[in-house]
Structures are given as structure tokens and as C-alpha cells.
Design goal:
With 286 residues, the protein is mostly beta strands. Helices cover 9% and strands 34% of the residues. The chain has two domains: 148 residues, no CATH class; 111 residues, Cyclophilin (Beta Barrel), CATH 2.40.100. The termini are far apart. This is Allophanate hydrolase.
Length: 286
């Protein structure tokens, strides 16, 4: 079986597929790639099924060597990519020879690269998925230097002849996210609901795969106190006692006690995965 040996993993590299949906009743979040469209695209570029396991690489600083010839693609964040010390284009199917070294530099746009290899990473399956859930510590652990990741059997589909997709780096400026009404919107004043859409928000330094906390004005509550824990979904915007919102993401708790004022529409969630600290966020009605 072919392998990819990780020389330097960077700040955080995780095996992620499209997750383990449908297990919230057991207290298990869906997890999976935060930028799902980037994973699907990377997989399509190398002829994999959309849900094949790839690597989610935070910010870059990643180096790996291929034992055998392999096809790969890097999508998501935008930054320098090199194969055997030669610059390689992102969002493109790349052929690596046996012994080739892949290097992914520091991201210039976005924060999460996605690396797919033809055949997918053949890591152990837990509850139907190869994904790492960072909150519950389910699935393969963070990739360490020296780790040898097995590459699965080549899929029946070939590498597409037209192997270059439209490549648009994540935006560096303001990002607008579509919002749907939340189940506890009535817990907030009319002014707070207006402020949610009118204010300038920015991603704080408190952001990971569990949630992304925003800085901005406090959202005033109409109903005091906390509610009994209730179900959450990816994109739920919880508002803590200080009035500041947090967007819950793939590794979130499946229940929570803070009221949810709104929910980021599924089509906008991939953009949250690529936000950088300090980047401006605006909301619109879905």
C-alpha cells in the first residue's frame, strides 16, 4: 500500500472527510472538513468520490514525502505550494513521482488548506467516518512529524482530463454570510436583531473547529437567564451572557444552553472556515 510520510505537519493537520452525520442523538457531532466545498473540489480533481478523506492543514508549514507515485491536489487556503522544490499551482491535479517532496507554505489567504490524494487517506474508521472530532477526541489524532499515512486503492474514476478548476482565493476583505432565523431570536430585543445585521463584526482570536467568536457590539437580551440545553446545528450563532456571538462549527457540542439568535446558512459555512483573526464579517438575510 502506498504511503505519504509527514516530515513537518505545521501547526495542526487533521484527517477529515465529510463527517459522521446523524449521530447527534448519541451526543456525537457531525465533525468533518470545515471547508466542505474545498474537500469536494480537491477530491474531484484527483478522481476521488467527494467524501474521500483528505488532510485539513491549518495555516501551512507542511512538508511530506510520497513513497510511490501519486496524484494530489491542494485547495482551500491560498499560498505557496511546491513539489520537489518547484512551484506548483493550487486547485490543480498534480502528479508526484516516487520520493517526491510536497511543501505547503504559510497561507496568504484563508487559513485551512485541504490536501487530497488519489485513493484518499486510508485511516481507521470510527462511527462511520475517518474525521477527527477535536472536542470529543474521536477519530485519528492530529498528524505528527514522522507519521506514515496510508493511501487507499485508486478509485475507478480517472483523473479528469480537464484538471484545472476555477481557482478563487478566499477573500482578504469583508465576508458576508447569509443568516436564517434562530430558534431563540425572540429572546433578543428588536434593536439587537437589527444590530446583528447592521454592525461591523470581526473574527476574534478565539476561533477553532468548535466555534468562531466574533467581536463587536453586545446584543441585548429581552429574556434574562439561561435556557435548558437544547440541540444545536452547525452555523448556530449562540450569544453568551456578555452579549457577544459565537458561530458554532463542525466539532461543536450537540446541545447548548446559550440562546441562538440566528443560524448561518449552510451555503455560507465554508466561508467561515477560511476567516482570519481580525477579518471583517457582515450578515445578510438568507
Amino acid at each position: 500500500m502506498s504511503r505519504m510520510v509527514v516530515v513537518e505537519p505545521g501547526p495542526l493537520a487533521l484527517v477529515e472527510d465529510l463527517g459522521r452525520p446523524g449521530l447527534a442523538r448519541l451526543g456525537v457531532a457531525g465533525s468533518g472538513a470545515l471547508d466542505r466545498s474545498a474537500l469536494r473540489l480537491a477530491n474531484r480533481l484527483v478522481g476521488n468520490p467527494d467524501g474521500a478523506a483528505g488532510l485539513e492543514i491549518l495555516m501551512g508549514g507542511f512538508r511530506a514525502r510520497f513513497d510511490d507515485e501519486a496524484w494530489l491536489a491542494v485547495t482551500g487556503a491560498w499560498g505557496p505550494v511546491a513539489l520537489d522544490d518547484r512551484p506548483a499551482p493550487p486547485y490543480t491535479a498534480l502528479r508526484a513521482s516516487a520520493g517526491a517532496m510536497l511543501e505547503i507554505g504559510t497561507a496568504e489567504r484563508g487559513v485551512r488548506y485541504v490536501l487530497a490524494v488519489r485513493g484518499g487517506f486510508d485511516e481507521p474508521v470510527t462511527l462511520g467516518s475517518r474525521s477527527r472530532d477535536t472536542l470529543a477526541a474521536i477519530g485519528p489524532g492530529p498528524v505528527a512529524a514522522g507519521a506514515a499515512l496510508s493511501i487507499g486503492a485508486r478509485p475507478e474514476a480517472s483523473v479528469p482530463l480537464l484538471d484545472r478548476a476555477a481557482a478563487f482565493p478566499p477573500p482578504a476583505g469583508a465576508v458576508t454570510l447569509a443568516l436564517m432565523p434562530g430558534p431563540r431570536a425572540e429572546w433578543f430585543t428588536d434593536a439587537a436583531r437589527t444590530t446583528l445585521f447592521d454592525a461591523e463584526w470581526r473574527l476574534s482570536g478565539q476561533a477553532d473547529r468548535v466555534g468562531a467568536r466574533l467581536t463587536g457590539p453586545a446584543l441585548e437580551r429581552r429574556v434574562p437567564g439561561e435556557l435548558a440545553s437544547e440541540a444545536t446545528v452547525p452555523g448556530s450563532i449562540q450569544v453568551a451572557g456578555d452579549g457577544r456571538p459565537t458561530i458554532l462549527l463542525a466539532d461543536r457540542p450537540v446541545t447548548g444552553g446559550y440562546p441562538v439568535i440566528a443560524i448561518v446558512a449552510p451555503a455560507s459555512l465554508d466561508a467561515v472556515a477560511q476567516l482570519r483573526p481580525g477579518q471583517e464579517v457582515r450578515f445578510r438575510h438568507a
